[in-house]
Amino acid sequence: KISTWNMLTFQDSNSFYSDNLISFHNLTMMMMTMIITLTTFFIFDFYSNKFLNLTFLKNHTIEIIWTLIPMIILMIICFPSLKILYYIDEIMNPYF
Questions:
Q1: Cys bridge to 19: 13, 55, 93, 96, which one at CB 3.0-4.6 A?
Q2: DSSP 8-state code for residue 15
Q3: Rounded to two decimals, what is the model's pTM?
Q4: CA torsion, points 74, 75, 81, 85, in degrees to nearest 10?
Q5: Torsion of CA 72, 75, 76, 81, to 10 degrees
Q6: Rg (Cα) of the chain, in Å, rounded?
Q7: Is residue 53 part of a domain?
Q8: Is residue 73 part of a domain?
Q9: 50 in a structural domain
Q10: For every one of its 96 residues, what pLDDT tens digit does the chain have, with 9 covering 90 and above?
Q11: What's the number of domains the chain is made of?
Q12: 3-state secondary structure at position 11
């Protein structure tokens, strides 16, 4: 397809590298959408709750969870990114 002004996605890929980059873009956009949605939900839920839970502010289990979840998300994004980076760095002889 030819790209137009109102296109929301990339053009159809013509190579292996661009296919991988488009897949990586889709993965990161999905992760960002999930993070923004969950964060917004928790913020609204926290502010709409009339009861203040004082144990929520000093809870070691919650602190461990909100430290580990971003690490896991970063690892999920990191490995495909490095894989694509090394694919692009390879020098291949074209066939003519």
A1: 13
A2: S
A3: 0.71
A4: 120
A5: 160
A6: 20
A7: no
A8: yes
A9: no
A10: 677 777 777 888 888 888 888 899 999 999 999 999 999 998 888 888 777 666 666 778 888 888 999 999 999 999 999 988 888 887 776 666
A11: 1
A12: coil
